[in-house]
Design goal:
The chain has six helices and no strands. By secondary structure, it is an all-alpha fold.
Length: about 140
């Protein structure tokens, strides 16, 4: 199986994940599409990054509801605080969803199911670690 040349997309995944909860939903969808499209132009990947980022941005509220419950309903969620199980589950689901869609669209053959799962898991682990590291590095200081 020959996957396309792959660039780990954690910068734009991190943008979609850290976008404010009460921010403009159409703005997030448009920005996600444009970021994915720019990455597609550099990777010559035919729109798979744009599609995966749009799907992540679209399902982001559902992932928030699943991970945070009532905290999301009252819009008191802040992802750049201490890593709790809710925040970790949100990051994990978002990254795995994005990577799974990305690799399914990249291969587009059911016969490579196990390779898609393996590539999704390994890339998701790396992306998750880098995202957590970046979130801790840009975390605002509490005074």
């Amino acid at each position: 199986m020959d996957f396309l040349g792959y660039i780990n997309p954690f910068p734009y995944i991190l943008f979609i994940i850290l976008y404010p909860v009460n921010g403009n939903k159409m703005g997030l969808l448009l920005a996600s599409f444009l970021l994915g499209l720019i990455l597609d132009m550099f990777c010559n990947s035919g729109g798979i990054h744009a599609a995966a980022s749009i799907i992540l941005a679209y399902y982001r509220p559902l992932i928030f509801k699943f991970s945070f419950g009532l905290s999301y309903e009252y819009q008191t969620v802040k992802l750049n605080d201490v890593l709790t199980p809710e925040r970790f589950s949100f990051l994990l689901i978002a990254v795995v969803l994005h990577h799974l869609v990305l690799f399914i669209l990249e291969v587009f053959r059911f016969s490579f199911f196990f390779e898609i799962i393996l590539k999704t898991i390994t890339s998701a682990i790396f992306t998750l670690l880098v995202c957590i590291l970046i979130i801790y590095l840009i975390k605002p200081n509490k005074r």
